[in-house]
Amino acid sequence: MARGKIVDALKDRVLFSDGAWGTFLIEKGLATGECPELWCVKRPEDVMEIAKSYIDAGADMIETNSFGGTRYKLGLYGLEGRVGEINEAAARISREAAGDDHWVIASAGPTGKLVIMKEITPRDYYDAFKEQSAALEKGGADAICIETMMATDEAVQAIRAARENTGLEVICTFTFSPAKKGEFRTLTGVKPAEACTAAFEAGADIVGANCGNGIENMITIVKEIRAALPQTPILVHSNAGMPEIGGDGKERYLSTPEMMAAGVGELIRAGAGIIGGCCGTAPAHIRAMREAALG
User: Fold this and answer.
1) For 250-258, which contacts have Cβ atoms below 8 Å and span 24 or more sequence positions?
2) pLDDT < 50 regions, the chain
3) Rounded to an integer, what distance in angstroms lies between the CA atom of residue 192 and that of residue 183?
4) pLDDT in tens, 85-131
5) pTM > 0.85
6) What is the pLDDT of residue 254?
7) What b/e readout covers 145-160, taking b as 16+ CB neighbours within 10 angstroms?
8) Residue 263 has what pLDDT?
9) For 244-266, what is each residue's pLDDT tens digit?
10) Domain annotation covers residue 1
């Protein structure tokens, strides 16, 4: 069937996205200090397996292995000259896994640089995301998911770059941390309503939150976004709870699929239209949340 636009599908149903990718890559042998995105070229079969696992779990859409795909992030590995190749490959893999009846929402994470620190200019942001988004579209993405944003100026430039240079639908999500009681803010001090309003006004079709919180906190965040933007679709990629550090020094996320599924109904009532997972989530979490919502 024809996929159509994500925003059109959201008019009459809740959609489900995928979960974490990094954990899978590590399980498959990604070494410390290795570029995850380069696996799209070096080990595409392994990346394909991750993408297919979420489709098999019932996800309506999947991301791409391109979170660190800007010239600045790839430059940390000496790969800044391969932005087009790597991002196109990432989108192409997820496109094949998704088939004709699922969407690909290509991942684009922050550059790791801040204008306020004079490490980068707004135009540099724009050019970097223009380059990445064009390659993701060429590889077959339906939308770009500008995610884990902490600075609204970076998010705005990323949205503008995708909106003005591609035909992709644009999703933008921020990461919020608990501030004083009952409040959440980005690391740059911006509240959910303010951040998402800025993203919407810059041209985002869908806004929301990812990472940093489990479903319980995400419910509060979504309510704030919905109050500010009554009609705008909201995407939530929550962690499997908050991490605990084990004796080996590694983070562990303890929310089971059943625990996450228990919060889905309230998350939908708060205003979430697309639900997926971030750190600690796996296909089993996506399957359980979808089943809880659809009955």
Assistant:
1) 251/279, 252/280, 253/279, 253/280, 253/281, 254/280, 255/214, 255/215, 255/280, 255/285, 257/282, 257/284, 257/285, 257/287, 257/288, 257/289, 258/288
2) 1
3) 9
4) 999 999 999 999 999 999 999 999 999 999 999 999 999 999 999 99
5) yes
6) 83
7) bbbbbbbbbbbbbbbb
8) 96
9) 776 666 777 889 999 999 999 99
10) no
What b/e string do you get for 167-181 counting C-beta neighbours within 10 Å, with b at 16 or more? Answer: ebbbbbbbbbeeeee
Three-state DSSP class for residue 101: coil
- Both tokens assigned to 170: 């644009």
Q: What is the CATH number of the domain that holds 97?
A: 3.20.20.330
The answer to whether position 272 is within a domain reads yes
- Residue pair 168/141 in contact (Cβ under 8 Å)? The answer is yes
Q: What torsion, rounded to 10 degrees, do the Cα atoms 215, 221, 226, 228 define?
A: -170
Q: Give the domain range for residue 145.
A: 6-294
- Number of domains the chain contains: 1
Q: Which one, of 289, 227, 249, lies nearest residue 17 by Cα?
A: 289
Q: Is residue 194 part of a domain?
A: yes
Cα separation, 197 vs 194, whole angstroms:
5
